[in-house]
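Lay summary. Proteins are chains of building blocks that fold into shapes, and those shapes determine what they do. In this project we predict the shape from the chain. Here is one chain we studied, written as its sequence of building blocks.
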Amino acid sequence: MALITSKEMFAKAMDKDYAIGAFNVNNMEIIQGIVEAAEMEKAPLILQVSAGARKYAKSIYLTKLVEAAIEDTGIDVCLHLDHGEDFDICKKCIDDGFTSVMIDGSKHPFEENIKITKEVVEYAHDKGVVVEAELGKLAGIEDAVNVSARDATFTVPEEAAEFVERTGVDSLAVAIGTSHGAYKFKGTPYLDFERLKKIHSLIPGTPLVLHGASTVLPEFVDLCNKYGGEIPGAQGVPEDMILEAVKHGVCKVNIDTDLRLAMTAKIRQFMVEEPAVFDPRKYLGPARDAIREMVRHKIKNVLNASGTL
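And here is the predicted shape, written in a compact code that computers can read:
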């Protein structure tokens, strides 16, 4: 099959009220686990590359690994740049074969965000590539993204409508209370669904994106801590909240932390239980399997809970 854009994926998702999983990738085992899960569940798939992933593995390695996964499994994949910080990195990824890019101008004033986003949209659309942008700021830390709770701002619905109209962007990441990292809430989880509904009502044809949407699954947090980890109190977005968001225009759900936790938990467990083993394949294999089963769970119970995929 092939690398494809998310355009048709999103159209189907919006029509049938399900969401596409957008999973961050950093190495071969993570890619294999995610792609195997999508193949088993016959699910559409977005693999996304962050600034940290590009620094760690280089885009060319990740791109070739994704191409190998497509050839191996026969599934279509959208290869997406996550949190592109400027026009130059978006252009480079487009030229390198990415089929989707995110220009994150949310740190800039509204008019500057529009200007930067429009520039990327014009270049990308000319190459047949789709563009995601962000309006509002998510708190938390993820690779190069670091926003304090004080500086986080929710998306203003009326600004979202103006932004989409003036930029021609294909999808929009909105800030309604999620955050990056493993510590998303200090108290009771809260998402501003009324704000989300208003945004969706003003731009009903625009796919909305939920960043920072890992659930921080308790079984992996507990497993990490059991085998020497120190991540007490980690808390993510409850799965029922993601299900609710999907009912109101969200059709791309970003997942990174859950992948990291699944992989790390199984590696920690193996290292403690098998201290004499030093073959990386022995512990990376179970880690890959954990990622596969976690992604399958997400697809079946969160992204496609309606069974309409």
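What the prediction tells us: The radius of gyration is 18 Å.
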